[in-house]
């Protein structure tokens, strides 16, 4: 039985995910003092459900259980029920995901946590069906058991929840005084090589994730080591991903991950952060190889983001759903009959040669293992120029036909950290491809974040939705924003971006830094006090905030000459040394910071006139060339006073004889000024 007329407290929320559940018969609360006070007064455990709006299995659990009156009655009788959008509250998600891993080994979404009224967890799971099947207990059987245990064995439950909470608190502290193993770089490369799929690219078995952070590490390592296999691992992976069904061949952009090792069958949601990181990595590959295939992929991703994920104000939406009309992937797949209806016979024959189409189906449903009767379009090989010309009008026809379908839900909340990743990629695209359009996009989005989600005191907020600004910024918001500001400076050489980056850095040190054990906490000192204050360094779906901050600090130390930043970067890396020694492949962004610090670097200051063609050629050459070891500053009469303040060592550097001059310092040693690169 289901109800269509019920309303709960989520109806007043802004999160699309919470609003999706606002008419469930479950008496959902948002995460709030009110919910936990009610649990305390009613002496009930708390049922915490964490997910996000474009999560396929979150939809399944909602349809099957949370919309069901029988399940809802049990839940309302036994629990105080709390819903959390993990994208709005990554701090809550981080804590309870780690707790779930400790208690049951289960990770992923929907995340189900049952806990005491003081927020201490004692049970965890991911998706739970309505009724038990195939050895997986259902909610109809689980809830009565938990209710009985709560009534009969409360003291044991509390003792266990205390134990879990103690382990969570212990987990955030690391062994002080550790150093990185001397072979940590070789060990990381070796660990990645062992899990690398030589046939299809990527790492590990199915499901396969894009893992941009690992690919960027390998590109950086190739730059320093010149070992061909490192570049080969990246190129095979980038090519296979673009050819596979994980890439939207018709509308562009990457789906979340592949359920199979061939990159053929995706989970169909599209996340902003994947578009940001992958477009950046493809640009890096283009810089190193000069192969236009990679720049074209980046430009296609940018096309998708600008068309489908850009708000009227110029900021970026969070995601698009996997499901439409209640079916995963329905918007993206094609039956042969539908293809023949849309295309002429000649066009269908051309399409069949370029996109292998199975007359029955190549799309197998993950849950049932059965054919869906539809095809996911993919490529077997990189297309020649003639093939591109043949397929382009056919793709356009299919795109227009697809536009007539019911589209997936779009999550239109604007998140500071994910927007920063996308801004960084557009700024990179502007530099590498010499694109004024991409520069304008990056500037407009940055202006939005700085005007709407930043206060005068450099405090960031995390989420913007329909004019509503909420949730204190987390470490990732600061870390990724500083990263984006540095990228935007590298493209525009506008010192206001450096000033903002330094202001945000100071704020982060004041409110996130752990003075006792070093590195940054994930939450601010001004934030709500949770059962623990999380601190992370491993790379998940997005890079670690601590890792990106370490790289930011190293970069800022080169830009400003302030060696305090370099020391703080070292403190971050060494705070996690023990964990990195044990599983370095999970910390590739921190390893990148370490590798950058270990290798010779170049600080380049170009003094010239901004509109001088010779100066512009030098700047564009530096911008388009891959070089993780270089820092480039530009000084003209307009920015000289500010730059001299931010980077005092540039004060006496100027044009010689009225001509553009280049000052190069390498590995803490400066050379004579040059007239060209």
Q: If you had to describe this structure to a student in words, what would you say it looks like?
A:
- The protein has 677 residues and is an alpha+beta fold.
- Among the domains are: 9-171, Glutaredoxin, CATH 3.40.30; 211-233 and 241-412, no CATH class; 602-670, no CATH class.
- Helix content is 48%, strand content 10%.
- The strands form six sheets. The protein has a five-stranded mixed β-sheet with strand order 1-3-2-4-5, with helices on both faces. The chain has a four-stranded mixed β-sheet with strand order 17-16-18-19, with helices on both faces. The chain has a three-stranded antiparallel β-sheet with strand order 8-9-12.
- Helix 9 runs antiparallel to helix 10 and helix 18 (475-492) packs parallel to helix 20 (545-560).
- It starts with 15 loop residues before the first helix and ends in a 7-residue tail after the last strand.
- What is the average of the pLDDT values? 93
Taking strands numbered 1, 2, ... along the chain, how are they ordered across the largest sheet?
1-3-2-4-5
Shape: globular
Report the biggest beta sheet as strand number plus sense, adding barrel if it closes: 5 strands, mixed
Oligomer type? single chain
Rg, alpha carbons:
26 Å
Helix fraction by DSSP (H/I, runs of at least 4): 40-55%
Q: Low-confidence parts lasting 5 or more residues at pLDDT below 50?
A: none
Q: Count of helical segments?
A: 25
Beta content: 5-15%
Element layout with pairings:
Blueprint: H1 16-20, E1 28-30, H2 33-42, E2 46-51, H3 56-66, H4 69-78, E3 80-85, H5 90-103, E4 111-115, E5 121-125, H6 139-152, H7 154-171, H8 184-195, H9 212-225, H10 228-243, E6 257-258, E7 266-267, E8 270-271, H11 272-289, H12 292-308, E9 319-320, E10 323-324, E11 327-328, H13 336-342, H14 345-354, H15 385-402, E12 410-411, E13 414-415, H16 416-432, H17 436-452, E14 461-465, E15 468-472, H18 475-492, H19 495-511, H20 545-560, H21 563-575, H22 577-582, H23 588-598, E16 602-607, H24 613-624, E17 630-635, H25 640-646, E18 661-666, E19 669-670
Parallel strand pairs: 1-3, 2-3, 16-17
Antiparallel strand pairs: 2-4, 4-5, 6-7, 8-9, 9-12, 10-11, 13-14, 14-15, 16-18, 18-19
């Amino acid at each position: 039985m289901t109800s269509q007329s019920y309303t709960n407290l989520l109806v007043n929320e802004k999160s699309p995910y919470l609003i999706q559940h606002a008419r469930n018969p479950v008496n959902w609360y948002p995460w709030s003092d009110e919910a936990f006070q009610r649990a305390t007064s009613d002496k009930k455990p708390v049922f915490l459900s964490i997910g996000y709006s474009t999560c396929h299995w979150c939809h399944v659990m909602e349809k099957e259980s949370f919309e069901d009156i029988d399940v809802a009655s049990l839940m309302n009788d036994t629990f105080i029920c709390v819903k959390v959008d993990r994208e709005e509250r990554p701090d809550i998600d981080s804590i309870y995901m780690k707790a779930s891993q400790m208690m049951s080994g289960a990770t992923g979404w929907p995340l189900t946590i049952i806990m005491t009224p003081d927020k201490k967890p004692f049970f965890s799971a991911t998706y739970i069906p309505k009724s038990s099947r195939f050895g997986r207990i259902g909610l109809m059987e689980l809830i009565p058991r938990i209710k009985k245990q709560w009534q009969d064995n409360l003291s044991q439950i509390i003792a266990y929840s205390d134990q879990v909470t103690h382990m969570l608190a212990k987990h955030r502290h690391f062994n002080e005084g550790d150093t990185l193993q001397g072979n940590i770089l070789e060990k990381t490369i070796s660990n990645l090589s062992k899990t690398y799929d030589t046939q299809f690219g990527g790492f590990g078995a199915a499901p396969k994730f894009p893992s941009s952070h690992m690919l960027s590490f390998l590109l950086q390592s190739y730059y320093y080591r010149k070992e061909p296999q490192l570049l080969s691992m990246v190129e095979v992976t980038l090519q296979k991903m673009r050819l596979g069904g994980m890439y939207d061949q018709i509308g562009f952009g990457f789906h979340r991950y592949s359920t199979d090792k061939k990159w053929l069958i995706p989970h169909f949601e599209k996340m902003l952060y994947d578009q940001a990181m992958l477009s950046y990595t493809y640009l890096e590959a283009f810089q190193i190889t000069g192969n236009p295939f990679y720049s074209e992929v980046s430009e296609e991703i940018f096309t998708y983001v600008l068309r489908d994920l850009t708000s009227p104000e110029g900021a970026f939406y969070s995601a698009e759903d996997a499901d439409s009309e209640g079916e995963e992937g329905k918007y993206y797949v094609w039956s042969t009959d539908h293809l023949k209806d849309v295309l002429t016979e000649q066009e269908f024959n051309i399409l069949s040669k370029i996109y292998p189409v199975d007359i029955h189906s190549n799309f197998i449903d993950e849950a049932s293992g059965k054919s869906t009767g539809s095809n996911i379009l993919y490529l077997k090989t990189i297309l020649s120029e003639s093939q591109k010309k043949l397929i382009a009008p056919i793709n356009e026809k299919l795109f227009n036909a697809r536009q007539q379908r019911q589209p997936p839900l779009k999550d239109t909340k604007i998140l500071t950290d994910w927007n920063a990743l996308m801004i960084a990629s557009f700024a990179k695209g502007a530099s590498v491809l010499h694109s004024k359009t991409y520069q304008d996009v990056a500037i407009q989005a940055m202006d939005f974040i700085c005007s709407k989600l930043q206060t005068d005191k450099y405090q960031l907020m995390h989420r913007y939705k329909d004019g509503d600004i909420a949730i204190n910024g987390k470490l990732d918001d600061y870390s990724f924003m500083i990263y984006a500001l540095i990228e935007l400076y590298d493209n525009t050489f506008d010192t206001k971006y450096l000033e903002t980056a330094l202001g945000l850095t100071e704020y982060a040190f004041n409110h996130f830094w752990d003075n006792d054990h070093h590195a940054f906490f994930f939450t601010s000192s001004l934030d709500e006090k949770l059962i623990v204050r999380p601190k992370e360094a491993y790379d998940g779906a997005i890079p670690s905030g601590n890792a990106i901050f370490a790289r930011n600090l190293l970069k800022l130390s080169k830009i400003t000459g302030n060696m305090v930043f370099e020391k703080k970067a070292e403190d971050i890396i060494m705070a996690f040394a023990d964990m990195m020694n044990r599983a370095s492949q999970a910390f590739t962004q921190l390893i990148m910071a370490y590798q950058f610090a270990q290798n010779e670097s170049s600080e380049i200051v170009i003094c010239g006139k901004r509109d001088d063609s010779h100066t512009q050629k030098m700047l564009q050459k530096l911008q388009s060339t891959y070089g993780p070891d270089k820092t480039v500053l530009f000084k003209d009469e307009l920015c000289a006073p500010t730059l001299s303040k931010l980077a005092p060592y540039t004060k006496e550097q100027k044009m010689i004889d009225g001509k553009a001059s280049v000052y190069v310092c390498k590995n803490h040693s400066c050379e004579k000024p040059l007239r060209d690169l």
